Amino acid sequence: MKNWVEWHIAYDDPESGLTRRLAHVRRRVLEAVERVPSGEIRLISMCAGQGLDVAGALSGFARSADVVGRLVELDPANVTAARERLSGYRIEVVEGDASLTSAYFPADVVLACGVFGNVSDEDIHRTVSVLPSLCREGATVVWTRHHEPPDLTPTIRAWFAEAGFEELGFDTEPGYSYSVGTHRLVGKPLPYRDDVKMFDFVGKPFDGRRTPRS
Ligand SMILES: C[S@@+](CC[C@H](N)C(=O)[O-])C[C@H]1O[C@@H](n2cnc3c(N)ncnc32)[C@H](O)[C@@H]1O
User: Fold this and answer.
1) Is 99 in the pocket of ligand 1 (CB under 6 A)?
2) Which numeric CATH code is attached to 6-185?
3) What InterPro entries has UniProt attached to this entry (predicted)?
């Protein structure tokens, strides 16, 4: 696996861990947008890849015209694919660095999928503690992480609780190493601050068909 474009090929295989994970992410994102009261729904996605999760969720959402979104992705080919997939929605796909808060606006739905398996434990903690500043009141965060040993997901879930979130779901599947966490902000959002660095993305692409990580 050479790059983050090829990494997405595993989504073509219906039995891959990535495809099975995607079904949970789409369902959780759809539930999250459905929870937002009438009016504009703001959505952001970090390290958004080709945007399959957001596109899949919005295709089943009656109020998709209310969704104003921003996806942030570094790889130009993935950005092009996401833009094509999401054309027709009020979603912009920004080619840029997802690690800085200045890339975003506070949102009702925040995706951090394929991020926590590719950054240090310390950066996961920092990102979770910064997330309330990227959330509007009652926002939902959908995130992923593998649970291979040493399994960090119990610690990540505790960090979400510390940061003022309640857990709405934690999806796993026997025989697969993915987890999809869904957390809702119950505390007050923190004030949005520009230019806060959340993480260094240190992961390398792998074959998602065999080892569904992150
Ligand atoms: C594991 S993939 C996840 C893609 C997508 N979120 C998904 O779950 O299908 C990680 C993505 O992060 C992108 N990426 C890596 N470093 C980044 C950065 N600093 N800013 C934005 N995107 C980045 C890669 O190009 C890749 O598409």
Assistant:
1) yes
2) 3.40.50.150
3) SAM-dependent_MTases_sf
